[in-house]
Specification:
This protein has 2 helices and 6 strands, in the order E-H-E-E-E-E-H-E. The protein is of the alpha+beta class. The chain has one domain: Alpha-Beta Plaits. The strands form 2 sheets. A 4-stranded antiparallel beta sheet has the order 2-5-1-6, covered by helices on one side. A hairpin with a 2-residue loop joins strand 3 and strand 4. Helix 1 packs antiparallel against helix 2. Belongs to the P(II) protein family.
């Protein structure tokens, strides 16, 4: 099993969620996060003073799935979230040792 964490633009969440749903992925965790990378934030003026805002709002999507689906799900996320500009986000892939469904006690792929 693998865990995919995708940090994407907030405006791309619905499109990515719909694309994953069409692929058959319905279980996911979505979090509102703040971060910075190559975008390096932006500068705003408030009451005549200039402020640097270097943490920008992003969305983190977390999905755990069997090893055989990883490449296709990464492709779906990448194609759907890409705008071609700095700030499109990142995808991280982690190994998952085990998963347990609390309600039934199922473990491994059956729990996902």
């Amino acid at each position: 099993m693998r865990k995919i964490e995708a940090i994407i633009r907030s405006g791309k969440l619905e499109a990515v969620k719909d694309a994953l749903g069409r692929y058959g992925i319905h279980g996911m965790t979505v979090s509102q996060v703040m971060g910075c990378g190559l975008q390096r934030g932006r500068t705003e003026v408030y009451r005549g003073h200039e402020y640097s805002i270097n943490l920008l709002p992003k969305v983190k999507i977390e999905v755990v799935l069997p090893d055989g689906q990883v490449e296709e799900v990464v492709r779906v996320i990448t194609e759907t979230a890409r705008t071609g500009e700095i700030g499109d986000g990142k995808i991280f892939i982690y190994p998952v040792e085990n998963a347990i469904r609390i309600r039934t006690g199922e473990t491994g792929d059956a729990a996902v």
